[in-house]
Structures are given as structure tokens and as C-alpha cells.
Design goal:
The chain is elongated. The longest helix has 19 residues. The chain has 486 residues and is α+β, with helices and mostly antiparallel strands. The chain folds into 3 domains: 140 residues, HUPs (Rossmann fold); 136 residues, 3-Layer(aba) Sandwich (Rossmann fold), CATH 3.40.50; 182 residues, Alpha-Beta Complex (Isoleucyl-tRNA Synthetase, domain 2), CATH 3.90.740.10. The chain contains 11 helices and 20 strands. It is 27% helix and 23% strand.
């Protein structure tokens, strides 16, 4: 009898036995089996790279559960697959083609040619993770391996979109989104990484003038009144459409209804610089001076304030983060961070820059492009989330019995420990409708067509209209996570 090695020798064991298991179909699930069914759908890893330590841990746990279930006499299906990873894959391929000198931008190739390059990349690199899973000994049914861009899979995803649209749960609208100026697409909150940044807080002053409906006790012979405002983004001053103070703040409440002269852009007539002072309880007494510049097109909080007060929305940036003509002659064409320095110089020249002080804040970065995102008002497709009342009805410990869905206690979710039900409630209170569209080419294309002759007419369906020459298909694709929960 041969002696057992003192140390584990994987090369003498793993390949031999894994090949044996595969040859004997040990992991293959039989749909006609009379055994109790047990199934796990693998959280599909992206095709963009290699397994991480997190993948190894997660898949090891799944493998343990699958093997235990087989030992208990169950018919086990551990379904494997990979995810097309929309923005991640497109970013990798685009970056590679740029390094090779093939393109400067994906538009150089056009949609169809660019997608051919992505498929070539996927065929070359997409199998790496599958082979790594096999090296780990994962007991998946490899005969059923799936890819989230398989034709039947894509068809299913698009069918769900059509069904939800017909139910009124998917709609198109204009709302603030996280925008990546490099990838040129909207991002979900999960694709934004918050990073602490050492920057500057800029204090500048604006002159208050009497408004037509002013509540201010200003007199014609009184000395000028100035308000000091603190901001981290002076380059967005040309997009300001109001100054906001908290109506409960005794320092400023009497000025609500007056106007101020916006210092930038420099080149516009004086009367076009006048913007109102409004009162809004969302203004923080403690931040800066308690006076907030409101830029509805470039900040989510400001946008909400703007909606409440009917403020104009002035978008002063191009999709790539450069300044457009509405920013003024001296800023147009500049990158947003270069424009910040020029804007500060202008404030200094005008004599309204009060001070600059070091300031650390958290800035959202695009997870893939690793650049600061821009809050951007953009027309996108959204999925409606359930109401808080509906969501609470699905939780045993919520104590709510009114409204749909009508579930028995055994059908409802139960949290362990129960205190997490309150966390769930809190999360549902702040949830917003999901932005499901992405301005990418790699992914499940949205099954919507727009009439060339009637701007308000759209066609939503699995097939294009019978006269496709008169229609244009939506160029966007669906958020990668759509294919994960279908």
C-alpha cells in the first residue's frame, strides 16, 4: 500500500477526479427525476476578468450546499453562467481598441462593427472564469451553461420589458441621474463609489437688490446688502437660478422675495443676472453661511428645490463634462475642473471672492471610468418600485394588513433578527424609481421604436413596426442588473 503524502498534492488528485466526475455526468440534473428537486442559480460572474476572492468564497458555499443536497438524495441543478457586464465589458474593449490605435471613439467604428469587436473579445476572454470554476471543482451542470447575451436569454429580457411597459410599470421621463462623462452613460447608485476628497470651499458674495414682491425692509438710501455663499463648485454659478435660505433662519428670512445679482457669466446683460432669493426648509443652517446657491441642472438636491419652486433649469455642461455656451464665453469649451479655476479667477477679479478654505467631502466616482460623476438631468427609462405600503405587506413583522398583495403569514418575508424589518422599512421609504436605461451599445437593446414623422408616437414590442423605414429604434440598452433579476 502506497504511503499517503505528507502534504496535499492537488496536481495528482484534482484533475483526475474532476475529469472522472464530468465523464460520469455526476453533476448533470435530470428533469424527469422523481427525486426531490434542489436548484441553485449561480450569481453570474462577469466575463471581463478573473475570479476574485469573493467569487471563490461565494461559489465554495454554493458547492457545499449542492453536494450536501446530492448526498441527501435530491436531484440537484447548480446552473452556471456568465454575465455580459455591459458597461464593464464595453469600457475594457473600448480602452483596448484605443490603445491599439484602432479608434479614438467607438463612433469611429459604428454600432455594428464595434459590437463585432466586443464579441471577439468575449470569445477570447470570456471562458477564463468558467475554467477557473472548474479548477475549483465546482459541481455545476456544465451542459446547461448560459450567457446573459444568449439569443433566447435576450428575448426573455426584452419580453419582460414589454410586459412591464404594458402594465404601466415602465415609463420614460426626465430626471436627475448619475452621469459618467467618460463612458457617456447614466449609472446606478451601485456603480458610483464615494471617495473622500481634499478640496476647497469657496466663499463669494452677491449683492441683494429689491424684488418686486420683496419682504425686505430695504430702503432706497440704504447701503448695499451682500450675502456670502459657500460652494465647492464655482464653475456652476452660470447655471444658478435662485439663492435659497431656510425660512426659519432669522438671519435671512426677511430677504425672501428679493433678488441678487449672479456674478457669472460676466458677458450677459445685468438684468439677466437677477435671480430670486427663495425660502426652502431643506437648506442646512450649518453648512457654509446658511445660504445655498441653487443649480437645478447640476445637483440632485438643487433639482428637488427647483421643482418645488418652479425654477428654470440651465444645463451648462456637455455630456463629456466640458462647458457649453450657456456657461459664458470665457468658460465655453473648458473641462469642468479647468473651468473651476477660471471661474474662481473671475470672482477674484470682480472683487467678490471672500475667501478659500480647505474642505474635505465625499465625491461620487464612476466605478468603471474612475472619474467624478456629474448629476445630470437626462431623459431615461425607469422602472416603478412598489409603494411602501405594498412592500410592508410582504413582511411578517410589519403589522400591516391593508393593501395588496394578499399574502398569508407563511408567504410573507420574515427577518432574523426582527429588527432588520425596520431597516427594510427605512430603505423602502427612501427608494426611488430605478433608471434602467444605459447609453451603451453592448447589452440588451431596448425594444422601443420612435416614429420619424410623429414625435409623440412610439412602438413597444418584440418586433419592429411593419414599416421599419419610418421608425428609429431606441439606441439605449438596459441596465446590466435587469438581466440578473429576470
Amino acid at each position: 500500500m502506497s504511503e499517503i503524502p505528507k502534504i496535499y498534492e492537488p496536481q495528482a488528485v484534482e484533475e483526475k477526479w474532476y475529469s472522472h466526475w464530468l465523464a460520469d455526468d455526476c453533476f448533470k440534473a435530470d428533469p424527469a427525476s422523481s427525486k426531490p428537486a434542489y436548484s441553485i442559480v449561480i450569481p453570474p460572474p462577469n466575463v471581463t476578468g478573473v475570479l476574485t476572492l469573493g467569487h471563490v468564497l461565494n461559489n465554495t458555499i454554493q458547492d457545499i450546499l449542492a453536494r450536501r443536497a446530492r448526498m441527501q438524495g435530491k436531484e440537484v441543478l447548480w446552473l452556471p453562467g456568465t454575465d455580459h457586464a455591459g458597461i464593464a465589458t464595453q469600457t475594457v474593449v473600448e480602452r483596448t481598441l484605443k490603445k491599439q490605435g484602432v479608434i479614438r471613439h467607438r463612433d469611429d467604428l459604428g454600432r455594428e462593427k464595434f459590437l463585432e469587436k466586443v464579441w471577439e473579445w468575449k470569445d477570447k476572454h470570456g471562458g477564463i472564469i468558467i475554467q477557473q470554476l472548474k479548477k475549483l471543482g465546482a459541481s455545476c451542470d456544465w451542459s446547461r451553461e448560459r450567457f446573459t447575451m444568449d439569443p433566447e436569454y435576450s428575448k426573455c429580457v426584452q419580453q419582460v420589458f414589454v410586459d412591464l411597459y404594458k402594465k404601466g410599470l415602465i415609463y420614460r421621463g426626465k430626471r436627475m441621474v448619475n452621469w459618467c462623462p467618460i463612458s457617456l452613460t447614466a449609472l446606478s447608485d451601485e456603480e458610483v463609489t464615494m471617495k473622500p476628497q481634499n478640496g476647497l470651499l469657496y466663499y463669494f458674495k452677491v449683492e441683494v437688490v429689491q424684488g418686486a414682491t420683496a419682504l425686505s425692509p430695504l430702503k432706497a438710501d440704504s447701503a448695499p446688502i451682500w450675502l456670502t455663499i459657500a460652494t465647492t463648485r464655482p464653475e456652476t454659478i452660470p447655471g444658478d437660478t435662485a439663492i435659497a435660505v431656510n425660512p426659519k433662519d432669522p438671519r435671512y428670512a426677511h430677504l425672501i422675495g428679493c433678488q441678487i445679482r449672479r456674478p457669472l457669466p460676466i458677458q450677459i446683460p445685468e438684468d439677466e443676472k437677477l435671480i430670486p432669493i427663495i425660502g426652502d426648509e431643506q437648506v442646512d443652517f450649518e453648512f457654509g453661511t446658511g445660504v445655498l446657491k441653487v443649480t437645478p441642472a447640476h445637483d440632485k438636491t438643487d433639482f428637488e428645490i427647483g421643482v418645488r419652486h418652479g425654477l428654470a433649469v440651465i444645463d451648462i455642461m456637455n455630456p463629456d463634462g466640458s462647458m457649453n455656451a450657456l456657461a459664458g464665453e470665457s468658460l465655453v469649451g473648458l473641462d469642468r475642473f479647468e473651468a473651476r479655476n477660471v471661474a474662481v479667477d473671475h470672482l477674484r477679479e470682480l472683487g467678490v471672492l471672500v475667501k478659500e478654505e480647505p474642505y474635505q467631502n465625499n465625491v461620487g466616482y464612476s466605478e468603471r471610468a474612475d472619474v467624478p460623476i456629474e448629476p445630470r438631468l437626462s431623459e431615461q427609462w425607469f422602472l416603478k418600485y412598489p409603494s411602501v405600503k405594498q412592500a410592508r405587506c410582504c413582511v411578517q413583522s410589519s403589522g400591516s394588513t391593508d393593501g395588496p398583495p394578499a399574502l398569508t403569514d407563511t408567504e410573507k418575508m420574515q427577518f432574523f433578527p426582527e429588527r432588520w424589518a425596520k431597516v427594510y422599512d427605512h430603505w423602502m421609504e427612501g427608494i426611488q424609481d430605478w433608471c434602467i436605461s444605459r447609453q451603451l451599445w453592448w447589452g440588451h437593446r431596448i425594444p422601443v421604436w420612435y416614429s420619424k414623422s410623429k414625435s409623440s408616437e412610439i412602438h413597444v414590442g418584440m418586433e419592429p413596426p411593419t414599416d421599419p423605414e419610418n421608425w428609429i429604434q431606441d439606441s439605449d440598452v438596459l441596465d446590466n442588473w435587469i438581466s440578473s433579476w429576470i
